[in-house]
Design a protein that fits this description.
Blueprint (H helix, E strand, L loop, with lengths): L2 H4 L5 H7 L17 H11 L4 E6 L5 E5 H18 L7 E5 L4 H13 L2 E5 L5 H11 L3 E5 L3 H8 L14 E5 L8 E2 H5 L18 E6 L9 E5 H15 L6 E4 L6 H14 L2 E5 L4 H11 L3 E4 L1 H16 L19 E4 L6 H11 L2 E7 L6 E4 L6 H9 L8 E2 L3 E6 L14 E7 L5 E2 L3 H7 L5 E11 L5 E8 L4 E3 L2 E3 L1 H9 L4 E11 L3 E10 L7 H11 L8 E4 L31
Parallel strand pairs: 1-11, 3-4, 3-5, 5-6, 6-7, 10-11, 10-12, 12-13, 13-14, 25-26
Antiparallel strand pairs: 1-2, 8-9, 9-19, 14-15, 15-16, 17-18, 18-20, 20-21, 22-23, 24-25
C-alpha cells in the first residue's frame, strides 16, 4: 500500500499544507526525541527508579513499574514480537483488549520496532471488528483471555457472514491460563532478555504508530494513520497547554484503544518524564479514592463521567457519607489541580454543577483522532471570573485556544475555503504537525477532508477574541447533526441547554427527525433522574418560554438509555427512528 492509494496526487500539496504550522512544515521537528524508543530509553537511563506506570486491574489489584522496569518489560515484549511473530518495522499489529499493563507493553514494543498498532474496541460488533482487521492489514492480533474465543470467531469466521481476517497469521492470548492452541503472552515474554536490538534500521519519527478507526454512526469505518511524530508532537502541545511536568502524575480512566487514553495519559507522561495511574475502567466509587491515594494531579475525562461523579456524590450524600467516597475528604485532594474534559458534548449546566459541587475546574478541550488528540484547551492563566466567562457567557462552553502543535480557524461550512470572522458560524478546521497522515485506503475521504489545505472537522463552531488577541473557539454542533427545519438550521446544543435546566431531566437530547411538512422537525429524547416525573406538555411549554416555536421540541420521547460512542459522544442520529410516527404530523403554534 502506498500513499498514492490513499491520497490522490492533486491532494498531496493540500495535505502537506494541512500538516504545516505557521509556515513550518512537519519536517521541521518540534520535539527533542528521535522516536518513542529514544524517549523511553532516556527516562529509563536518567530516572530509572522513578515510577512510570501504576496499574489497577478490575479486582483492585495494583502493580507498579519504574521507568527502568517498564523499559525492560517492553524490550522483552519487542523480542517476542520480532523473533517469534516476525513483526518488522512498517508492519501492523492489532489488539482486542482493554486497559491492562500487557496492552501497554504491546503498544510500546511495536513502537520500539517501528511497527504500528491497530487497537480494536471490544464493545464494537463482530462484523465491524472483522472489517477493520482486514482493512488495517495487521499480521498479528493480541486478545485478552476473556475475548480470545470471540477473537478467534472474528478472525477465522465465515466470509459469508462478513467475518474473517485471513491477513492475521497469529492470534496471541494475553492473561488467563495458557490455551494450548495459542501462544501465551506472559509465558513467552517472561524469561526473555530485557534488551532488544533490531537487525533493521532504527524506528523513525515518520514511522506509523497508530491506525485508529473513526467511530461514526454510518458508513464504513475510516482508518486514521498517525505517526510516532504525531503522537509526540501532540503530547508536546498537551503538556505545554496543561503545564504538565515530570514531577506530576496523571490518571487514566478512559479506554486505551482510543487516542485520548493513549496520547493524554500514556504518551504525554512519557514525553515529560511524569507518571500515570492506569485503571481498568472508570469507577465512581474508586475515582476520587485513587486520585487521593496516588497523588494524582490531572485526569482526562468525557462529559458522561462528570455526570456519573455527580450521581455518585448524590447517592453518598443521601446516606450521610463523603461525596468523595468512603474515607476520602477534600483535604486528601490538595495536590489535585483540575480535569481535562473533551470528546463529547459538554453542557454548561453539567459543567457548572460539577465545578460548584466539587470545587475543581473543568478545563474544556477539543480534538479528534484525525488531529491525534487534543487540539485546544481553555488556558490555565484565566482567573476564576474569566474562566466562568468563557465557560458560561456565550451559550456554549468554550473549548479554548489552539495548542502549540496546531492552528485553528473557522471556515464557511460549504467547503469553499472562505475563512470567517469572529462570531460567524462555520466549520472548525485545523492544520498543524499533529494532523494525521491520511485516511487509509480512502482517497475520496481524503479529498473531502483536505479540500482547501486545512483538515475539515465536520463540526460547526465560531470564535471570539480576548484582550490578548487569543482565539477562543466554541463548538455548536456536528454539522450533520444540525437540525434543518424548513431550511433554517438549529444547533442541538442550544435546545439541550434548555432541556437539562428543567427539574427532573437528567439528559435531554435534541433530535432532528424526518417530517413531511418541514423536512425535519425538532424532537427531544429525555432521560429522567431516578424517581422524577415529568409531564410532556409542561416540558414542551417550558421550552417554548425559552425558545422560539420553530426551535422548540414538538415531541418528547422518554427513555432510559442513550447510544454513545466509546469516547462518550452521544449518537443522536441513532435516535431518529424513535420519532418516526410523527413524520407526517404538521405542528402548529
Amino acid at each position: 500500500m502506498t500513499i498514492l492509494d490513499s491520497v490522490p496526487p492533486y491532494i498531496q500539496p493540500l495535505l502537506t499544507n494541512a500538516q504545516t504550522i505557521y509556515g513550518l512544515p512537519p519536517t521541521r521537528r518540534l520535539v527533542p526525541y528521535q522516536n518513542i524508543r529514544h524517549a523511553l530509553s532516556l527516562h529509563a537511563t536518567i530516572t530509572p527508579d522513578k515510577t512510570f506506570l501504576i496499574h489497577y486491574d478490575a479486582d483492585g489489584s495494583r502493580e507498579e513499574f519504574t521507568y527502568a522496569q517498564f523499559n525492560a518489560r517492553v524490550h522483552q515484549t519487542a523480542g517476542f514480537l520480532y523473533d517469534d511473530l516476525g513483526v518488522r518495522r512498517g508492519d501492523r499489529v492489532a489488539t482486542l483488549a482493554y486497559n491492562h499493563i500487557d496492552t501497554v507493553l504491546v503498544y510500546f514494543a511495536c513502537w520500539l520496532i517501528g511497527a504500528a498498532v491497530a487497537p480494536q474496541n471490544p464493545a464494537e460488533d463482530d462484523r465491524r471488528i472483522a472489517f477493520i482487521l482486514r482493512n488495517c492489514e495487521a499480521k498479528v492480533c493480541f486478545a485478552r483471555h476473556d475475548t480470545l474465543e470471540r477473537a478467534a470467531a472474528i478472525i477465522y469466521g465465515d466470509a459469508s457472514d462478513d467475518l474473517g481476517a485471513p491477513n492475521i497469521t497469529q492470534l496471541v492470548q494475553m492473561g488467563g491460563a495458557p490455551d494450548e492452541h495459542y501462544l501465551h503472552f506472559e509465558t513467552e515474554t517472561a524469561h526473555r532478555p530485557d534488551t532488544f536490538v533490531s537487525m533493521q534500521e532504527r524506528p523513525h519519527l515518520d514511522d506509523e504508530a497508530l491506525l485508529v478507526y473513526t467511530s461514526g454512526t454510518t458508513g464504513a469505518p475510516k482508518g486514521v494513520v498517525l505517526t510516532q511524530y504525531n503522537l509526540l508532537v501532540d503530547a508536546l502541545g498537551i503538556s505545554h497547554a496543561q503545564a504538565i511536568t515530570g514531577g506530576q502524575r496523571l490518571m487514566c480512566v478512559l479506554p486505551i484503544h482510543h487516542v485520548n487514553g493513549i496520547v493524554v495519559t500514556l504518551i504525554t507522561p512519557l514525553f515529560v518524564g511524569a507518571s500515570v495511574v492506569l485503571n481498568r475502567a472508570y469507577s465512581s466509587s474508586h475515582f476520587w479514592q485513587r486520585i487521593a491515594r496516588e497523588g494524582v494531579h490531572l485526569i482526562s475525562v468525557v462529559p458522561t463521567l462528570l455526570q456519573y461523579s455527580l450521581d455518585y456524590a448524590a447517592a453518598q450524600e443521601a446516606k450521610g457519607a463523603s461525596i468523595w467516597g468512603d474515607g476520602v475528604h477534600k483535604s486528601d485532594l490538595r495536590h489535585f489541580r483540575h480535569l481535562m474534559c473533551g470528546a463529547g458534548t459538554l453542557a454548561m449546566g453539567l459543567a457548572r454543577e460539577f465545578e460548584e459541587r466539587f470545587g475543581f475546574r473543568v478545563l474544556h478541550g477539543y480534538g479528534l483522532s484525525e488531529t491525534t488528540c487534543y487540539s485546544c484547551h481553555l488556558p490555565l492563566d484565566l482567573s476564576w471570573d474569566e474562566h466562568r466567562h468563557w465557560m458560561y457567557d456565550f451559550g456554549y462552553p468554550s473549548i479554548g485556544c489552539a495548542v502549540l502543535s496546531n492552528e485553528m480557524a473557522i471556515f464557511s461550512a460549504d467547503g469553499s475555503g472562505v475563512e470567517l470572522a469572529p462570531g460567524e458560524r462555520g466549520e472548525i478546521c485545523i492544520r498543524g504537525h499533529n494532523v494525521m497522515q491520511y485516511y487509509f485506503k480512502r482517497p475520496e475521504a481524503n479529498a473531502e477532508a483536505f479540500k482547501f489545505g486545512w483538515f475539515r472537522s465536520g463540526d460547526e463552531g465560531f470564535y471570539e477574541v480576548d484582550d490578548k488577541g487569543r482565539r477562543f473557539i466554541f463548538i455548536t454542533g456536528r454539522i450533520k447533526e444540525l437540525i434543518n427545519r424548513g431550511g433554517v438550521k438549529f444547533s442541538p446544543f442550544d435546545i439541550e441547554e434548555v432541556l437539562i435546566s428543567y427539574p427532573g431531566v437528567k439528559v435531554g437530547l435534541a433530535i432532528g427527525f424526518k417530517n413531511h411538512y418541514m423536512g425535519e422537525e425538532v424532537g427531544a429524547y429525555v432521560v429522567l433522574n431516578e424517581g422524577a416525573a415529568v409531564v410532556t406538555d409542561e416540558l414542551i411549554a417550558y421550552c417554548r418560554e425559552k425558545l422560539t416555536f420553530e426551535k422548540s421540541p414538538k415531541v418528547v420521547v422518554f427513555g432510559t438509555e442513550i447510544p454513545v460512542t466509546t469516547t462518550g459522544k452521544y449518537q443522536r442520529l441513532k435516535l431518529q427512528d424513535r420519532f418516526s410516527e410523527w413524520e407526517h404530523t404538521q405542528f402548529r403554534k
